[in-house]
Design the sequence.
């Protein structure tokens, strides 16, 4: 991981840049470098490396990596307290006769660090201790200039707005989950004559694929990077319940995304199994195959995999006579893309292709795979990724 070395360590007294010419491991104040890459360091040295000063600002890659991984060893509010303490002590922000010129040099860098923290890991600030430290440090750097006070007010407003949006989203999720538990009962009590299938609700596979993508993007937007770390952290059995995760392992948005995948899979299986006649079931299968194909074209691989998972569930896959009426060529092409063999090689290849198209495209149409919709035999997906 390329990192900005400590400013004092870049040049020696003769102006020689030793980091550019040294290939072996080097120890700079508790930080260990190899070929100008930061390899490791003590926790205190890494925290010090995070704190900017007049002549130094940490690399953005380092800021993200350390803020993400440090929660394995300490609470975010503890890190914030240490960062605030170092900023105040190093820049003498607690002195009564504060030098405004010095404040004007360091304030933008501290403000930038706080901005990156609040924008990348806003959920950390749901803790009142985090907000208290943030406001205390912000007040100290704002004393130097009214312009900084306005910037800090904007930072706090953006953060509060984002946290309020997250709270509203979680309330909506709770209502959806409460409603979904009643759905099986409602379906049983409703006369079959007034039940509406998915094709009646939305007869265009492209429109449904678009709507699924909107849902995917919304749910992805609320997943914090730290949730992926927290989801896979295993508690140390010898830790005597002192792990910093025992009271902050919150992965509700990531869990909601997984639940959405499962719900979509079960929706597909349910919609296919509901019709009594084989030809109607075959029509629903072909409809979902077309939806899955449109999801592939858009680059919505999560919904694509959920749909394929639903069609591979045993209640659906065992319908041999129904599948005999389905044109399965399209389905097999899509299933090939999601083949788990070789660590999902086909899927990873398709994902790289979609990412490349997204970077080089000038319009939404160019971002999509140029697949003809008229014939199932004209879908050479692997040629486009």
Sequence:
């Amino acid at each position: 991981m390329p990192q900005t070395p400590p400013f004092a360590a870049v040049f020696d007294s003769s102006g020689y840049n030793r980091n550019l010419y040294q290939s072996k491991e080097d120890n700079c104040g508790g930080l260990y470098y190899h070929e100008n890459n930061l390899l490791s360091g003590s926790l205190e040295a890494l925290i010090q490396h995070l704190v900017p000063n007049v002549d130094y600002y940490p690399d953005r890659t380092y800021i993200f990596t350390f803020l993400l991984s440090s929660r394995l060893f300490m609470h975010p509010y503890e890190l914030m307290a240490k960062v605030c303490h170092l900023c105040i002590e190093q820049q003498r922000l607690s002195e009564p006769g504060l030098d405004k010129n010095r404040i004007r040099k360091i304030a933008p860098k501290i403000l930038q660090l706080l901005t990156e923290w609040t924008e990348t890991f806003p959920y950390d600030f749901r803790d009142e201790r985090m907000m208290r430290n943030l406001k205390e440090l912000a007040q100290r750097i704002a004393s130097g200039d009214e312009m900084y006070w306005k910037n800090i007010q904007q930072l706090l407003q953006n953060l509060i707005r984002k946290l309020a949006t997250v709270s509203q989203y979680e309330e909506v999720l709770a209502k959806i989950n409460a409603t979904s538990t009643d759905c099986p009962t409602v379906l049983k009590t409703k006369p079959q004559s007034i039940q509406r299938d998915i094709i009646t609700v939305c007869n265009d596979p492209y429109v449904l694929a678009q709507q699924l993508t909107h849902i995917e993007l919304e749910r992805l937007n609320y997943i914090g990077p730290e949730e992926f770390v927290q989801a896979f952290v295993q508690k140390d059995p010898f830790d005597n319940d002192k792990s910093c995760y025992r009271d902050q392992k919150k992965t509700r948005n990531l869990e909601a995304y997984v639940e959405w995948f499962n719900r979509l899979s079960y929706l597909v299986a349910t919609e296919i199994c509901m019709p009594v006649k084989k030809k109607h079931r075959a029509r629903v299968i072909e409809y979902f195959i077309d939806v899955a194909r449109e999801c592939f074209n858009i680059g919505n691989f999560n919904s694509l995999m959920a749909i394929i998972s639903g069609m591979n569930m045993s209640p659906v896959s065992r319908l041999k006579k129904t599948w005999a009426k389905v044109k399965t060529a399209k389905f097999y092409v899509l299933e090939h893309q999601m083949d788990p063999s070789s660590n999902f090689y086909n899927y990873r290849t398709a994902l790289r292709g979609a990412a490349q198209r997204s970077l080089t495209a000038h319009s939404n149409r160019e971002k999509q795979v140029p697949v003809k919709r008229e014939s199932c035999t004209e879908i050479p997906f692997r040629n486009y990724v």
In short: The longest helix spans residues 146-180.
